[in-house]
Write a structure and sequence with these properties.
The complex is a heterotetramer of chains A (167), B (976), C (81) and D (419). Chain A is built from three helices and eleven strands. With 167 residues, chain A is mainly β. A six-stranded antiparallel β-sheet of chain A has the order 1-2-8-11-10-9. Chain A has a five-stranded antiparallel β-sheet with strand order 4-5-6-3-7, with no helix packed on it. In chain A, strand 1 and strand 2 form a beta hairpin. By secondary structure, chain C is mainly beta. Chain C contains one helix and six strands. The chains are: A mainly beta (167), B alpha+beta (976), C mainly beta (81), D alpha/beta (419). Strand 31 of chain B pairs antiparallel with strand 17 of chain D.
Chain lengths: 167, 976, 81, 419
């Protein structure tokens, strides 16, 4: 197997006060596209609408567009709809700790209040003028899926925003 | 001579914390809780600045954000900022403050000579002179005028401060923490809603802080304590609400107490907004009302009650309304001898009684005729029946109060005039906006508290059952009474009667503007510069508008106000820019091979947001030297270049072929599987949008490539067509630009190189002919080889997923090392394509038609495609249009340059020429400079001699029009 | 300004790409003459008031949609999927 | 007292304060008919009236302004003038404007503070240097001043830019037009108004046009808030409200109205001595004579008639300012505002006849309305007087999109909202 090299190979994890930021590599991402019916046929149960997450069989489905679902986990052979592997297209940054929401609020115009943005929710928005998907997977645990080619700039923007929590 | 002293009185300063600071080079002391202004007053400093135009001596006028005069260049630890408002600047240890706009010193300012010329310098005088003697004479006067203008100096050194930015949300934003704001915030907080309380001061409390009342102080503390206990409340001191933008975006400018950032700009989306922004006291306008020592009456009270700074012995108060008596009484109670000049003829009994009790003399029906003293006032002369001169340390003036309606009108609601209080009040409130207290013209304290509570209940109607607020145990509010006095200057003294203190606009100037017909409030402002200072007319606008209304015989309601614009108070540009500056200004887009390039001697160049490898140091240390070696490598052997930046789009679905067939001018419906085709797409207007190569992976799947620059545009365009117009087509598009990396392996030895890299794969000419596409797995990774050539040589593009691109690149470099393969950069890539005559970014400039680029024949005659109809507009088909040609240099030692303008050999070298050079290179094959150009009539002129004019360098170079395909016209190399 | 994406909900305008006037019918592919295409591409009502227009949630779900917005106030009147 | 403005008359007035200056422009009641009506008392409308009276001897003119004169874009722009255009038609037109600017204060006897301090447009890539060179070469070949500067020369002229290694978009060079510069914007409106008024033009403020009256395909007058006013020649010069007014005559135009924001800081002592523009993102900046740094960027990018900008655009412009000129970080933003700009699909204007006889159009100015004012006024006046295009405005026709004769000066493509 050829050596996999991340867009954040040169980035050093951030461990600050109640905040850690690190790359969370090695995930499989496949996009499934098609009409509602086709998506259901291919994937079984699917998230009802854009912005909704469904977890089953150890896979996470995110409805990213009316006609698109992102599947994170082992790809499913899907004849009934279109599939596009996208694992390399995104770089995943994990943020954990009590101060994550403070930092995220500095990066995009999304309400990160714990009562508003809870675990198992996601949004697609802009960080540093680039598209980003932010997924909350625990009380204060978040993943940012950044565009691979912009990942280093997004990383720098995130860690720069976190400066006040430097240890 | 000192006019003020610090007195022994309980207040909001903390005498246990001494703070040293520097003013104009001298060390001075104050206390924690002081502002810079209060500390300076306590030290007896009253001459603090010079005015903008006449350089008149000026002192502090106010005690808040409205201050027009006392601005300094301040700093801590070497970092300084010009034009800091001293009346709001919290005193901090080590702060340095310098007076501005005075030379050589505050005390002796030579520019004060301007005062003598003031009869000349009336409003708008500069529009009437400095025109001669020559046409461009202004260029002679301008530098002198410029030098005289300006307040502080900009500082060219790098700003070391950090500015932060955050995006927040809340249910209720309360702006202002005076009695109304506190009441609103506490009421809202009791509902459990998300509340933000924003206060520009470094203490909550607003007017309560200046009241000197123990009961109010107790009430204030109780409210703050309750707010501090509420988990959903954010309390923001030192926070100015600068503006309200569409859909309740409020921009807050917050100076944190301890943070890595000097300032935080908060973009707050508030569901509802309660404005409790209070009111600003107006000066009265009379002769020499700008002398140091003449202050707003309320400011005297603030300095007394909040900062324990009192006039030394004697104060005169001049007023047209009741509010100034609070100041008079408080001063008298602290042993200051007070005299009141009262414009009104009658006064209510309770005020008279209290004044008598405190020994205050009141002169009714009179104002101030003049102020004596220049750098510090010494006495006032009363006007009217009691024309006496009274010696005093300070003069407190009150012309009434102007509600701070600014934020209420940012959304476009114009304020309206309220005759009862002689002031503008909000013309209404937008949906989800509420007001409480003085901003609505409600000047009573208990009334303000009640309004605050009502506003909060209205903002949060879903929570009705909350406990009512406790009111402070104070007397019921007095009724406010005022008799408007807009101009109290005697006619002869109007030129010394200041309306706008900072910009030196006098009553005479307003009269002048009126005489000359600058009548509308905007003309008045623009002609006289009234209200255009750093204070944006917070103290001056209303007086001026009223004077103009008077002169025009209009009611105030007819005259209107100038438009209130954000920011509410000046905010540094850096604070709004936040973190997204300098190296972080815009994201850098990096190829998956970026680190490899960094580690292997590449020099980079910006291409849009991308950082691209420009050239490699193996070939040379300048782009000029390196690209030629890199070109030679490709022409003679084999090179490898990073093409990951190409836009790549996955086009899938049963109708994918039909879709592409519509989008491209040339046919894609019948493209066989495993084959690639060059395609061009047009906009609706028939102008070229983009070009690229698209290959068919299987029946229903295509792999599209676009130019680097247009990738985003093309993607959005395809989505637009599919989602909004051609919804009957079953096609999905997904960007693969980030998913796939790519490299071009080019040169006569490229096949050998790939054979060395992939010995198991058959890539003979038969198995993979020109424009063939092949997918295979290599070491578990999917690889796509496309036989395409940008350089004109036998060449391949090798694509694979971005995670493995570097490994694959290194593998090919290692495997083909025996051949001498090396990387080549963007400069060589661009040069090679010029030799081949491939158009690219520099030639495609959104103005070209298909025919301009010599590609007209590509378009299907019988086939429909986007842009077909408008492509055939008259001028788009004109024979004299500029179209693509090749050019070769005919002069030894001369250089062709991009941007040169082309002329026929016999033309006069002037005008717009017949075309221009779009891209240039040295041709290693032809040993001369060659170029691509657009030329009037295009290839019709093949063989003709032309002149490439570059007057910017005084060059005219002879050249010849040739085919843009400089090398391998038959394409033998491509098909080899 | 907040723009209501029909799929993601209300978001800041900076997340969107504007696509211009949506009140005009695009001539069907392969039909229409120069005049029709000219009017479609180049002539606008440009009203001061309700304006039907295209937007794409380009940083979000990437979906295009039509929006009815009052150009005199920037108030959103309604959307259309 | 003398009507003329000069240092002598200033001194006279200073010595004799009892004799006031006359009104800068008279404020007559509207008559029932005029030879020519100009709708719009902005820079272009007032200039047109002035040149009609001055060059063509037509004195019976009314300029109808719905608010106060100069209330639109002439008083909201960033005051820049330049003539660095490279597309045939544009080049000569804007150079004509520059030549008129050069003598304008004298011509009008009103100091418009025409400051030829030079404009530097900074290139951020070798490709941009080439593109700027093309522009500069065309300028030189048309007798217009232009210089190409390399990075070192720029460093000498503009020492305050960020030349550090970290600079996101390093400066590669610049094109410099020494005669470009700034003009005191309000003074242009007032100067033209005063000069026109002295020639007998009626400037009628607070007079809003509500209908354009036609007799068949011929214009016969207008209905206004101050009554019906007749004229067989009506010129429209209303910038951002062009579509709105044209609609009164039943016209639909290739125009969209967009907001362009502008910014000014507190005044400081002189530091920026040129107009500075940037090739990385649209950004331009100069320092006013009063000391404020005046600057701006791109339009917000969607149709709007509100004069309120979006904050993200404000933030973008501040980011550009701080990034290109680090000293801007500590400058305090004093005020920001918006103007409604009439954008066309190719970024170029219209000065042309309309399908209605006697109705003339001047609009679609995009970013260049202010700098065009004198040439726009001259050519529009010529066209109204002669009922035919002046050589200089032939290219600014309404039918150029039908003909495929776009004037896309900046290579943006046919999109009004992207221009």
């Amino acid at each position: 197997m050829l050596k996999r090299i991340s867009a954040l190979a040169s980035a050093v994890s951030f461990n600050g006060n109640d905040l850690s930021i690190s790359e969370s590599p090695d995930f499989a991402l496949t996009q499934y596209a098609g009409a509602e019916k086709e998506l259901k046929k291919a994937l079984g149960k699917i998230p009802a609408r854009v912005g909704v997450i469904l977890e089953h069989d150890g896979r996470i489905q995110l409805r990213t567009n009316p006609a698109q679902i992102w599947l994170i986990g082992e790809p499913i052979e899907a004849e009934a709809c279109i599939s596009t592997p996208l694992s390399s297209s995104r770089t995943r940054i994990a943020l954990q700790g009590k101060n994550t929401r403070v930092v995220l609020a500095k990066l995009c115009a999304i309400d990160f209040h714990p009562k508003q943005f809870k675990a198992d929710m996601f949004v697609q928005t802009a960080i540093h003028h680039t598209p980003a998907l932010i997924h909350c997977f625990g009380a204060d645990d978040f993943h940012i899926y950044a565009m691979r080619t912009f990942a280093l700039s997004v990383w720098e923007a995130v860690t720069d925003a976190a400066l006040e929590f430097s240890a | 001579m000192t006019a003020f002293k610090r007195i022994d009185k309980q207040s909001h300063i903390d005498r246990t914390k001494l703070i040293s600071f520097q003013f104009d080079g001298k060390m001075t002391n104050g206390f924690a809780g002081d502002t810079l202004a209060s500390a300076l007053l306590a030290n007896g400093k009253t001459l603090l600045g010079r005015s903008f135009k006449y350089h008149r001596p000026r002192g502090i006028i106010g005690a808040g954000i409205e201050e027009p005069n006392a601005l300094f260049t301040t700093g801590i630890g070497g970092r300084t900022e010009p034009n800091t408002i001293s009346t709001t600047a919290e005193l901090k240890s080590g702060i340095t403050a310098k007076s501005q706009n005075a030379w050589p010193s505050l005390n002796f300012d030579l520019m004060a000579v301007n005062q003598l010329l003031s009869p000349l310098f009336g409003a708008g005088f500069y529009y009437k002179t400095f025109m001669g003697p020559f046409k461009k004479s202004w260029m002679m006067y301008e530098p002198i005028i410029r030098k005289a203008a300006g307040l502080g100096a900009a500082l060219p050194d790098l700003d070391t401060a950090r500015y932060d930015m955050r995006y927040m949300f809340c249910d209720v934003l309360v702006i202002g923490s005076g009695p109304a704001g506190l009441a609103a915030a506490v009421t809202a907080a009791r509902t459990g809603a998300r509340v933000v309380l924003a206060e520009q001061d470094f203490e909550f409390g607003g007017s309560i802080l200046s009241s000197g009342s123990e009961e109010l102080e107790r009430w204030r503390k109780t409210q703050i304590a309750e707010l501090e206990k509420s988990s959903e409340v954010r309390l923001l001191k030192r926070t100015t609400a600068q503006g309200i933008y569409d859909d309740n975006l409020v921009v807050l400018n917050h100076t944190p107490e301890s943070h890595s950032a000097l300032m935080i700009t908060e973009q707050l989306r508030a569901r509802t907004i309660i404005m409790a922004t209070g009111a600003i006291e107006r000066p009265l306008v009379f002769a020499n009302n700008d002398r140091p020592g003449v202050m707003l009456a309320s400011a005297l009270r603030t300095y007394l009650n909040r900062f324990s700074v009192a006039p030394k012995k004697r104060a005169v108060i001049v007023t047209n309304n009741d509010s100034a008596y609070a100041t008079a009484f408080d001063l008298a109670e602290h042993d200051v001898a007070v005299t009141v000049a009262e414009h009104r003829s009658a006064l209510s009994g309770d005020l008279l009684a209290k004044a008598a009790q405190l020994g205050i003399a009141i002169f009714p029906s009179c104002g101030i005729s003049d102020v004596v003293g220049e750098k510090q006032m010494r006495a006032v002369r009363l006007s009217g029946r009691h024309a006496v001169t009274i010696e005093c340390d300070v003069l407190g003036m009150s012309g009434g109060w102007s509600p701070a309606v600014h934020l209420t009108s940012h959304g476009g609601i114009k304020p309206k005039f309220d005759e009862k209080i002689a002031a503008f009040i909000p013309g209404g409130f937008a949906k989800s906006h509420f007001g409480a207290g003085a901003v609505k013209g409600t000047f009573g304290l208990l009334a303000a508290i009640r309004e605050g509570e009502v506003a909060a209940r209205a903002a949060l109607p879903e929570c009705k059952k909350i406990k009512e607020l406790d009111l402070p145990a104070i007397r019921e509010d007095r009724k406010y009474s005022i008799q408007p006095i807009w101009n109290a200057a005697e006619k002869a003294n109007e030129k010394y009667a200041f309306v706008d203190f900072q910009n030196d606009v006098t009553v005479k100037d307003i009269r002048g503007a009126h005489q000359e017909g600058y009548l509308s409030v905007e003309h008045l402002k623009r002609y006289t510069t009234l209200g255009m200072g750093t204070d944006q007319g917070k103290t001056s606008n209303i007086n001026a508008l009223a004077m103009m209304a008077d002169l025009r015989g209009l009611a105030m309601s007819q005259a209107g106000t100038t438009t209130f614009r954000p920011p509410y108070s000046p905010i540094t540009v850096g604070a709004i820019a936040g973190r997204t500056v300098a190296a972080h200004f815009r994201p850098k887009r990096l190829s998956p091979l970026h680190d490899w390039h960094v580690n292997n001697g590449a020099t980079f160049i910006e291409a849009g947001l991308w950082m691209r490898a420009w050239y490699y140091n193996w070939a040379g240390n300048t782009p000029e030297a390196a690209y030629i070696k890199e070109m030679e490598l490709v022409r003679q052997n084999v090179g490898i270049a990073d093409v990951s930046t190409l836009g790549k789009i996955d086009v899938q679905g049963p109708d994918a072929a039909e879709f592409l067939n519509r989008v491209y001018v040339n046919g894609f419906a019948k493209l066989p599987v495993g084959r690639a085709r060059y395609g061009v797409m047009l906009n609706d207007d028939g102008v070229v949008l983009d070009d690229g190569t698209t290959s068919r992976i299987n029946d229903t799947q295509f792999y599209m490539t676009t130019t680097t620059a247009q990738a985003g545009e093309v993607m959005s365009w395809l989505e637009y067509l599919l989602q909004m117009h051609w919804t009957d087509l079953d096609v999905h598009v997904t960007s693969l630009t980030d998913q796939w990396g790519g490299m071009a392996v080019s040169g006569p030895n490229s096949r050998r190189a790939l054979q060395l890299a992939f010995p198991e794969i058959d890539i003979t000419n038969e198995a993979l002919p020109y424009l063939g596409v092949m997918d295979f797995k290599f070491e578990g990774v999917g690889v796509r080889v496309l036989r395409l050539s940008f350089s004109g040589e036998l060449a391949y593009e090798v694509h694979c997923s971005a995670d493995y691109t570097t490994a694959l690149w290194e593998h090919i470099l290692n495997a083909a090392a025996p051949l001498g393969i090396k990387p080549y950069g963007l400069e060589a890539l661009a040069s090679l394509r010029i030799e081949k005559g491939h158009v690219a970014g520099a030639d495609l400039d959104h103005r070209n038609t298909l025919d301009d680029l010599g590609l007209g024949k590509m378009a299907g005659k019988d086939k429909a495609y986007i842009g077909k109809e408008l492509r055939f507009r008259e001028d788009c088909q004109a024979p004299e249009r500029w179209s693509l040609v090749g050019i070769e240099c005919m002069e030894d030692g001369a250089k062709l340059r991009g941007g040169a303008i082309l002329f026929a050999a016999t033309d006069e070298i002037k005008g717009h020429g017949r075309g221009y050079i779009t891209s240039v290179t040295w041709s290693t094959e032809l040993n001369k400079y060659i170029a691509l150009a657009l030329y009037n009539g295009g290839m019709k002129h093949e063989g003709k001699e032309i002149i490439c004019a570059f007057p910017l360098k005084n060059e005219n170079v002879k050249a010849r029009i040739v085919s843009p395909h400089f090398i391998d016209k038959q394409g033998e190399r491509l098909h080899a | 300004m907040r723009v209501p994406c029909p799929h993601c909900g209300e978001r800041d305008v900076a997340e969107f790409r504007y696509g211009g006037d949506a009140s005009k019918m695009r001539p069907t592919h392969d039909t229409g003459d120069l005049k029709q295409w000219h009017d479609y591409k180049f002539v606008f009502d440009n009203p001061k008031g309700p304006h039907l227009e295209y937007w794409q949630h380009v940083y979000g779900c990437r979906q295009w949609f039509k929006l009815n917005r009052n150009t005199a106030t920037n108030e959103i009147i309604g959307g259309e999927k | 007292m003398a009507k003329g403005y000069s240092i002598f008359s200033l001194v006279k007035h200073a010595l004799r304060p009892s004799e006031p200056w006359p009104e800068a422009w008279e404020k007559p009641e509207p008559k029932s008919s005029y030879d020519v009506i100009i709708i719009g008392g902005g820079g272009h409308g007032l200039a047109t009236a002035y040149y009609l009276a001055k060059n063509h001897g037509i004195k019976n003119i009314a300029v109808l302004e719905k608010s106060y004169i100069g209330s639109g874009n002439v008083g909201r722009n960033t005051t820049l003038i330049r003539s660095n255009y490279m597309i045939g038609g544009n080049t000569a037109f804007f150079e004509k404007s520059m030549q008129l600017w050069e003598g304008l204060s004298h011509e009008l006897n009103f100091n418009c503070m025409v400051s030829h301090r030079g404009q530097m447009i900074l290139a951020v890539s070798p490709g941009q240097v080439d593109a700027f060179a093309r522009r500069g070469n065309i300028m030189r070949l048309n007798g217009i001043d232009a210089e190409l500067m390399d990075r070192n020369e720029v460093m000498k002229e503009l020492p305050y830019l960020d030349y550090s290694k970290e600079a996101r978009f390093p400066v590669h060079g610049a094109i410099h037009q020494p005669r470009a510069g700034t003009v005191r914007h309000d003074a242009v409106a007032w100067g033209y108004a005063r000069a026109a008024s002295q020639l007998g033009v009626h400037i009628i403020e607070n007079c809003e046009v509500s209908a354009i009256l036609k007799d068949g395909d011929k214009v016969v007058g207008v209905e206004t808030s101050r009554g019906k006013i007749l004229s067989s020649k009506v010129g429209i010069a209303v910038a951002g409200h062009t579509s709105h007014v044209a609609k009164m005559a039943g016209l639909r135009l290739p125009v969209e109205s967009h907001i362009l924001q502008a910014f000014v800081t507190e005044p400081v002592k002189p530091i920026v001595h040129h107009v500075v523009s940037w090739g990385a993102e649209l950004f331009y900046l100069s320092q006013s004579d009063k000391g404020g740094i005046v600057f701006g960027g791109h339009i917000d990018g969607f149709n709007t008639y509100t004069q309120r900008g979006q904050f993200h655009r404000i933030q973008n412009v501040m980011e550009s300012a701080t990034t290109l000129l680090p000293f801007m970080s500590r400058m305090r933003l004093l005020r920001h505002w918006g103007g409604i700009q009439d954008m066309t699909p190719d970024g170029s204007p219209f000065i042309c006849k309309t399908p209605i006889d006697g109705l003339y159009l001047n609009g679609g100015w995009c970013y260049q309305g202010f700098k065009a004012t004198p040439a726009s006024g001259t050519t529009f006046a010529y066209m109204i007087a002669n009922d035919q295009e002046h050589e200089l405005n032939k290219c600014f026709s309404l039918d150029r999109f039908e003909k495929g004769k776009e004037l896309d000066e900046y290579g943006i493509g046919n999109w009004a909202y992207k221009q």
